[in-house]
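## retry 2 of 3
previous attempt timed out at serialization; input unchanged, resubmitting
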Amino acid sequence: MGVPQVQSDLDILDCLRNAGPMTVAELAERFSVTPTAIRQRLNRLHAEGLIERQASRAGRGRPHYVYGITGKGRQTAGANYTDLAIALWGAIRSIDDPKVRAHVLTAAAHEMARMYWRQVKGLTVSERMAEVGRLLSQKRIPFSVEATGETGSGSNLQATSRPSVASPGDATASRGTRLPILVGQACPYPDLAEIDGQICQWERLWLSELLGIEVHLTQCRREGGSECRFQAAENICSDSDNRWERVQAAST
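## retry succeeded, writing output
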């Protein structure tokens, strides 16, 4: 059996989920890397609440720590909610009343964004996009940020502290900068996307909620693009039950 590779923080989570609590030395030996490299990943995981640590003493001397996965970490490492997501999406799409359906989808986007709010602390849209890309990449969904869009004020635009609540002063920025683009090299919802392309517009909706600014889906893998590109607009994200209707209208 080959030596397991540590290519992302999720590899550490997978190991702790399968093998149980381990020390830095044990993890370093398991992955054939330095203890320093392991500590860097453990510190990030611990800060995000994905692992916990307990001091353990073996005789005299300083205690060492044993690291174990938390409930939140298990959800991140090994949860597979594909079937549930497809079933729930189908149930929502089957709601006859378009206003009720739009309200449920908007509420779902708001809740999705809320799950990440505390982890996305950047003041500008570019900073927030970079943090969103990092979070999604940690879930093995490769995202990156480009600052090569159309000229405008979006790159330096101040995002709202809570994305769905905007204030007039949040939209101040200098002209002539590049609007950032969040680029997805893989679809987060491949099974759903095969069934219903509206999931792509819902993804646009919750990213707008999280970033605190409207984003446009300028390229989509489902429609033949090589990647999904979410470009920042120059208008602040509003908090309204008709957001889903406006997203659909903009995509037609």
